[in-house]
Amino acid sequence: MKTTVRHVFTFMVLSMATLHCALDRDGSALFGADGGSAGGGGDGLGNGAGGAGTAGGNVVGASSSSSGQGGSTSSPARRVEITFDNQSGPAIDDFPLLVRLDATRIEYARTSPNGADLRFVDADGITVLPHEVEAWNPDGISFVWVLVPDIDATSTDHIFMYYGDPAAGVAPDPLKLWKSFVGVYHLSGSTTVGFDNSPSAHHGTVNGNVTTDMNGRIGEGISLGGSGRIDLTGVDQFSADMGQVRTVEAWYSTTHMAAQRLFSQESNCLGFGMTLGTTNIRYRGSLFTGGGCGTHQPFYAQTNDATADGQWHYVTMVLDRPGSEIRLYLDGMLATSNSIGNGNDAHSANAWIGSAFDGNSAFQGRMDEFRVASKNRSAGWIAAQNRSVRDQFVTYGAPQMP
User: Fold this and answer.
1) Cβ(174)–Cβ(185) below 8 Å
2) Which of 62, 76, 83, 343 has the greatest number of C-beta atoms within 10 Å?
3) d(C-alpha 85, C-alpha 100), whole Å
4) Does domain 181-374 sit in CATH 2.60.120.200?
């Protein structure tokens, strides 16, 4: 049984009525006054809400009551410091960080549905960072993308994640997050697998044998059976024309050894592509410029690094037309490079994820997170992106009150 200890005080108020006050051990207050009563409530710290008082009397507690509940002395909001391990890499900018959350990094019980109360803030404690919730799973692993403007070459640079206060949550803003990209395809969701999250809105259409892979590299991905693809039309912005720079990224897993195309943006023998699994060339990037079939100029960079091992691999191709160079990266490391021409356009309005331009050389395996950016990504940026997706780039502090 709960034992209640009350301290009784009597005050004279200006109206000459007598006010009686009783304080319980738990801090709840009960008031009574000759001729009337006031509502009780609260924990003495302004956090509780009191109910309406009953008719007045002059016996404390006999004629005045409260239905108020004392509030908690601690805020429900929490803050987690996310620290970058970038002491061995260069400073990088415009970086989409993958935040991987589970019950050891966030208190799901304090969060709002779908992570609506999340807020990410830069190290200055002021600048709010745009984010996007790709997958929210309070019973398991959630994936959130956050755009970090600058990351120092240290082991101390950091950002903050806030949650637990619905009123302070910031709405996701994928258009601002992916502003330097011309195509961002998370390849998740059975009905939105071809959705483009970039400001370009180049949404694709599923064609053929493409199914949802529940065990993608980042939540859900897609599985292609050698006869399916995602068709993209009106994607002129993808074109690596004269003076342009494009960075193409994708995650894939396959055990298929025959020639297969991860991506193709070509028409009339103009454009570019990424190929896997040929007999002696396991990874190739290509650029076709000039006047079309019969007069076009092909440029290649290729390596025989084996990647058809059933594991997830991160491939990146940088087409630097002003620098006359094509660079291929595998799992965050430079694999090869070659010279390319800058004298002709390589324009195409159509593209395909998972096949060549004619539907041939279709990919067999799993794919996730396909992106095209209009920026020349550095080796440090690409290495950090590989580590970020593999959950090796940041550490998470314990949740604390802000």
Assistant:
1) no
2) 83
3) 15
4) yes
The answer to whether 292 touches 315, Cβ cutoff 8 Å, is: no
Distance of CA 299 to the CA centre of its chain: 35
3-state SS, residue 381: helix
Closest by CA to 129, choosing from 101, 161, 87, is 161
**Structure tokens that stand for 188 in this block:** 């998740």
Of the candidate CATH numbers 2.30.30, 2.40.160, 2.60.40, 3.10.450, the domain formed by 78-177+390-396 belongs to 2.60.40
Rounded Cα gap, residues 252 and 149, in angstroms: 27
Structure tokens at 277: 């699994």
Strand partners, 95: 148
CA 247, 251, 256, 257 torsion-angle sign? positive
Tokens representing 49 are: 């809400």
Counting Cα atoms < 13 Å in the Cβ hemisphere of 151 gives 28
Contact between 319 and 329 under an 8 Å Cβ cutoff? The reply is no
